[in-house]
Amino acid sequence: MKYLKFLFFFMLVRSCLISLAEEPDTVFYEYWDINSLTMVGGHDVTLYGEPAVVSTDKGDALYFDGINDALFVHKNPIGDAKEFTFEVLFRPAGGQPNMANEPRFICFWDPEESDGPRMTIEIRVTASNEWYFDAFLKTDVAKLTLIDETKTHPAGQWMHAAVTYKDQVFTTYVNGLQELSGTVGYTAKVLNATGKTSVGARYNLVNWYNGEIRAIKVTHAAITPGEFFSVADTAVQSGTEISSGYDSMEIYPVPAHHKVFISEIAGDRLPLSVALTSITGQTFYHEEYSGPGSLQELDVTDLPNGVYFVELHFSGSSITRKISVVH
Question: CA-CA-CA-CA torsion for 262, 267, 273, 274, nearest 10 degrees?
Answer without folding.
Answer: -20
